[in-house]
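User: Show me an example of a complex going from sequences to structure tokens.

Assistant: Sure. Here are the input components:
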Amino acid sequence: MPAPSAAESRFGEIESHRAYLMRYALAQLRDAQLAEEAVQEALLAALESIGGFDGRSSLRTWLTSILRFKVVDLQRRAIKERAHESLDEEHVGGDDEGWLDDHFDETGHWRVPPQAWSDPEASLDQRRFWEAFEHCLSGLSSMAGRVFFRREVLGDDTAAICKDENITASNCWVILHRARIALRGCLEANWFGEARSRGR
Amino acid sequence: MAADSRVDCRRASRLLSLACERELDTAEVQALRRHLDACLMCRNFSAQLDFMRKAAKKYSRG
């Protein structure tokens, strides 16, 4: 088989950021179809203008800046098309924290005690860690995934997120708390637990 | 926080998460500190929160 051409390998490199870009678009647009559209348009635009990428920022950062324009564009179009539409999403019960019972027993103790993760920083350089990270993000409910992404990945203000999601601050906190607990459990089960058993 | 200043893991984890969103008041800080001094599991959770935040930031740069 001939070696991949420069254009092909560039395409592959850009493609490898698709999952991240999809999360970014979903967090803003809250609609899978629109998000898909935005990412598709952004990737096409990126391929056309890859020559303008000077490598001063990371490729992901550059791709995200292109996607941002597409997202804003689609947001404008969507607002025009659907004057108002209620969220078809899971409803967030006000003070209902029954979900915590899955994680804590009657005496308030952890059901699965958090372990000490050995040398977590080293994981940040491992491709397989990021696969586990994305796998665990995918396990969150769609709303929790969006809120967590905007809060922790993009560093958005909680107030702005609450407003866009149409929820109260305390609901927002519950969702974030829930997401963090779910994520830490998933990472421990799928990455740090395994890492320990491999003897690293 | 309420008169009952005893904090179990359930409440401690909640305060730890809340501390990422807003400043805790003095009573909350004291209650949380007392719990953390005695609880390795929640200290682990606290370290995991810090790490996940760092990982999430790095995720945005790729």
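The lines above are the inputs; the final block is the predicted structure for all two components together. Chain A is about 65% helix and 0% strand.
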